[in-house]
Structures are given as structure tokens and as C-alpha cells.
Amino acid sequence: MAESTNAVKKWIWTVIVGCVGVILLFLIFLPTILSSDAGTRFLIRRVENQTGGTLTVRNLQLSWLGEQKIDALQFQEGKGFLLTFDTLTSDCSFWNLLFRRGSVGKTQINNLHISAYPKVSEEKVAALKEVGKKAKKPKGEFWSDFRGHLILSNGRVTIQNGVSIYAINVNLELDKTSAFKVEGKARRNEQLGNFYGEGKQSPLWEGGMTFTNVPVEGLDQIVALIRPKSQGLLLALLGDTINAQLQSIPTPEGLSLACDVNSPRLRVDLKPTYQEGVFRLETPGRIALTVKPLLFNTFSKEVVLQNDAQTELRIEKASLPLMKQKLNLAKGSGEGNLYFSKGQLLLTQVQEILEVNELNANFSTSALGELINLTLRSAMRYQKEAPSSVNGTLAIQNLLKKPTFPQLDLNIQNLPLALIDSFNKSSLVTYLGNTYSGKVVKSENQFTVSGKTPLLSLEKTSLKIDTNAVLTEPANFSYQITPKLYKELARPFPVQGIIHTLLLPLSKEGLVFKKANFNLTLNAGAIESKNLLGLGAASLPSLQATLQGTSLESAQFAISTFLDYHEQTWGYAILGDQVGVKASGRASFDKELEVSPLDLSIDGRKFKGDIAAAIEKHTLILKKGIQVNFLLEPSQLNPILSKDNAYPLLVKTTPLELQIKPSQIPLKEETLSALSVKGVGKVADLEMVNPANRYPFNFKDVEIDFDLDGKKNSHTIHFEGEALENQQKAGKLTLALSGTGKASELITSPDTVKASLSSFSSQIADVFFKTRGQLPDLIGPTLNLNYEMGKVGDRQQLDMQIDSPGLTLDGAFYGGKNLELKSPRKPLRIRWDLS
Question: Among 323-327, 386-390, 643-647, 820-824, where is mean pLDDT lowest?
């Protein structure tokens, strides 16, 4: 039994030792395996899968003890990128290479050549990024504790449009103390340049870099390979070539630095020092730039530069701390001047040019993140207005975070409000006009504004600032309302107003006007409307109003005015002149004006009544039914009726009692489909005359029922009345019309008509049949009629029965281009006594 147990143990140890031996042998021969043809193909496939390109290697040598070497490597990504080198040798240990950590030793690359096309589409860059996302990424850093000595000999970068950077030699040591040396040449067609630099860390970086006539387009194309959207920006910033010297010279206190850039568009002259973790500029520095539209417009879409402009930054002194290898802008300090001139700016929202002749800003700050003081001076011109300017001072807090409401003292002359609209997406130009001139002052505890625009004139208005901004005393203003605000106006009219109370909430950014709490009164006169409430032209000789609200989006109002509709309008016919109107309710201001509720009280000679209504989506909504009494007057109605000389005319003033149920009445022609009106009209005695022969007649006990429903696309009218001749009964008339489509076409083009005349005077019927006095001779003194018409496709179906002393008719027809019998089984029967 013991022998069996020992045999098992021996067998287990043999297996373990064998496995360990196999693993050790695999590790020992791993460089040899990977250097073989099969191993090289395996590595090539992994690289191609991760990059999406194609890779070839003539020879790969890996070793535990010797150097690592690659001969004749070529990597190509489609037609956009090619990388080749002759040899890469490195004494980096295979262990460090396997685990991607530690020193890479001395690594040398000979004759590296990178060739690329200058234009790579955004889609291509996105595709490359997608390949990178799908590829299996190694966990952690690509290479931790990276150290070593890197040497590049005779490198070359070619952009395939005549741009090349060649004879590149780089010697880079990265360790506890680091050093670098780099040199090369650049060519763009016939332009030649070179660059050279060297430096070391001991412990601060010292050294320098020189660029001499380096063609900028080559650098710009290299940037575009990585970020296509940035193509042209470096060229726009610098110009064709760049000459620059960068120096870092050690001093007992730290470093003396110099940055001297001289290019066609950018000039930099800065000589700061570095000591105790702070960059300091103690001698004046200067940065001058010719701003190209491409550069400016990359960062601004609302305001677009149209020409080359000039800008210059002069720094008298400055300091900028370096904390944890990052520049601390919030603790930066300095003073200087920023100057911008000769710029033509297109305000895209209105497509107008603002010419900036000069914009000059002196600045000073002891801590940029806390407070910066600005003194502004400017000279501009907008459209054909007088010269524009903004001059004064500002003190801005928290500039690098969310700036608070600044303290300011500004004198403003003809400032284009379109400039503010462009950034705030507002509509100041629509409501105030093109420009603003005035004075704006904000101290720690008071805000004061005064000024004028083409439409608004505001006297000095002061607000005390505490937890809110509160108006200190009533303020007067005047405002011009134009047809641009309300297109039915015939001409602009002035409004005089007094702001009695005003409370504005405060935010860190400033006054919150949208949530203003206010109370004001308005007075206006000489208001002319081309079409008031769809009833025709009207005048409002005077108007008084009060507004009270807790935000600019909604306000309570009360209005008192007199209303005069012009003659020969429906408004004049219905309401008359000198109509007193009082209105109150709540108005909401969003994209469209809405009023709900709207309480109207109308007091006129012809119309009196109270109306509970609302205005929503350009529609007058009657919330409750109304009963009103109108006066139908010949002097007002007959000019309208006489437009068709066959219509009978009104003889005397006639009362009309009208009952309207809750309804919806569109105020715009394009919304007439939403018309919904239902009610009944009653007239006790309607006296009329035939205009052709001046024959008089009456209707008594007239009743008109109407139901006009645009939403259901269905309209009906029912008329019923007793006719009188010389105060004697002359028959009865009933008429019913129905139709679809526009309600305004119901009278002229109904879908169905039903008419009935009982013992009806032919003299009166002659008026409606337009037979010009001939009907009594044709049929006799009276008429009984039953008439029905209905539309069938593009034809009409007619059924008619006539019974009179001179004519009897019974027939059914189809009416279209021709009149034909409806059915042969029902022949047309006519009895006509001819005299």
C-alpha cells in the first residue's frame, strides 16, 4: 500500500516538473518563436486587426540576451498613410518589451519616412477611430515607467502636395535627468526653411529652439491629418512662414525665458522669468495678430468677420502660477491693453454689417478668477446710422466660472441691438428698433438706466439692489407701436407710460427681467387699424390702460377706449360709431399674443352688452352665450347691399335681437376654417324696397337660425318669415341652406337648398328671383313653391313644384351645363296660361 502511495506522489511531481519545464522552455524560446516566419505573421495579423492597415517586415529578430531588431518595415493604411524605415535596433530587454514597462534602452531608427495625403475626410478619421475602438486594447498604460535613449536618424515627413520635412535628426534621453536635440529642414515648393533645438533638465528645463523660414503650410497639413476640421487654421494664424526663437536660460533665481515669433500675421515678443513656481512678466510684452476670417469665424457663428482685422495685446506686467504641472489661470494677475481695429462684422441674424473701427480695452487684475477691471473705448458704425460707441468701465467677477452681474458705468451711443440679439437669440430689434443710446450704471447697491431707441424713450430709472432690484420712484417712458408689431395697424402710434412699481429678481448673472413684478399705466391716441377684429377699418381716438404682472410672460390688464369703425364697413353697420369699450383680463406673451380671460363691455348706440371671451391661436372664443340688440340702419347697411343691384334695400332703422351660443370666431383669414358660431336672430318688422322699381314690402316675425361649424365642416342657415304688402298678408317664406367648405360661401354656393313659399306675393318673389318686374305677368299675383336642390358630384339635383294662377309646374332635373330630366318615368308637367 505504501509503495502504491509513493508511486502516485512520484507521478504527480513528475507531471508538475514537466509542465514547469514546458513553460520554461516556451519562455526561453519565445523570442525565437516570434522571430520565426510563423511568429512574425502572427504579430503582423494582430497589428493589422488593430489598425485596419497592411504591414510588411523583411526581418524580425527578438532575443532575451541580445538586441531587438526590425529590418525594412512598411505600414500602409489605404491611400492615406504610409510609414517605412530601414532598421530599428534596440537594446531594450525582451522582458521589458513583453510587459511594456521600464527602460527601452538605446533605441535607434534609421531612415524613417512618413508619407500622407494632405486632405483626410472627417468620415475617414471617424472610421479609423472606430477601428481603434473595436480593437482589443491592452489593459492599463501602453508603457509604464517609460525611460530610455531614443535616436532618429535622417527622418522624413512628406505631405503629397509638395510639402516635406526632411533631414530630421532627433536625440532624446528620458531618465532622471532628460535632454533632447532635434534638427531638420522643411520645404514647400521653392520655400526652404530649417529648425534646430536642444535642451536639458537640470532640474529645470534649459535650452532653446529656433525656426528659420519654416513653411507653415507643411505644419498645417500635419495638423490636418490628425484633425481635418482644423485645416487652414495654423496657416491663417501665422502666414506662409515662421521665424521664431524660444529660449530658457538658467539664473540664480530660476529661469530667464524668451519667446520671439516673427511671421507675416503673428508677432510675439515676451520675456518672462520663472522662479518659485511662478511665471512673471516684468518688462512689457506684446502680441500682434492679423485676424483672418477663417480663424475668427471658427470660434464665432453669430458674428462673422468679413475681412482681415488687426488686434494687439500689450502686457505691462503679469504673473501666472504653475501648480502641479498646470497653469493656474484663476490666480493669474496682470495689466495691459487689448486693441482690435478695422474689422467688418456680419451680424448673421439680420445680415447687416457692423464696422468696428476701434475697440480698445485696458485691463487690470490681481486674481483673474476673482475680479478683472476693464476700461472700454470704441468707435463703430452700423448701417447708415450715426457713429456707434461704448465707452466706460466694467468690473467682472468670476470670469473663468459663471460671471456675476458686473459693476459698470457705460455711456452708449447708437449700439446696434442686433449685436445683442445675435448672442441672446432675442428680438430687441423687433420691439425696440435698430440702436440704443443712453447711460447704464450699476454699483454694488444701485442700478440706473436711461436712454432711447427708435421706438422707446426711457427717462432716468433707478433700482435699489438688495435681495431684489426695486424701483426707487416712478419712471416715465414713451413707446412707438408700429405695424411691424401688429400688421393690421394703418400707421404707427405713440404710447405714453408711467412705471409705478417694478421689482426684478437678481441672479448671479444679473437682473432677471422675465420674472419682473410690475405695475404701469399707458395712454395712447390716434390709433388707426386697417381691419379691426375682421370687421373693417377703425379708429381709436384715445386709449387708457393699466398693466400689472409678476412676469413679462403674463400680465393682468384693464383697457378703456372709444371705437369708431369707418363707414361702409361691417363694424360700422353692426356697432356704429363712438362705441365705448372696456376690456379686462390676462394677456400672455409667447410666440403669439393670447388673452384669457377677456371680459368686454360694449356701450354703443346700436349695440350694448357684456361678453365673456378669450383670444387663443388668433381666434376669439365666446366662453358664454350672449344676447344683444343691434340697430340695422339703412345709411350703414344699404351701401353694402347695393354692391349687387338686385338685392333689396332697407327702408328704415330696424332692431335686431341676436342670441349667440358659445362660439369660436377666427380673427385671421387663414384660420377661418376654425369658425364655430351658433345662434338665432329675430326681427319683428323688416321693411324693404325693390331697388329696380321701388316696390315696397315687409317681413314680420322673421327668425334666422344659424349653425356655422368649421371644425365639423358643416354649415346651416334657416330663415322663416311672414310677408306683407301694404300691411296685408302676402304669404310665408321658409328657406334652409346647408353646405361644407368655407362658411362665407354658404350663401353663394350652398350644397343643399330647401325653399317654400305659401300664397306668396309674386311682386315680392320677383325681387328674389331677379326677374326685373316680369314675374307677376308670367304667373299671376300669388305663388306656392316647393324647391329642393342638392349637389351630386359636379351636377345639381333639382326638384320643383310651382302652383300659381298662371303657371303650374312639377318636375325633377339634373342641372349642369345642360338641364335634363331626372327620370323618364317622371315627365315634366307644365300648365301655363299665356295672355
Answer: 643-647
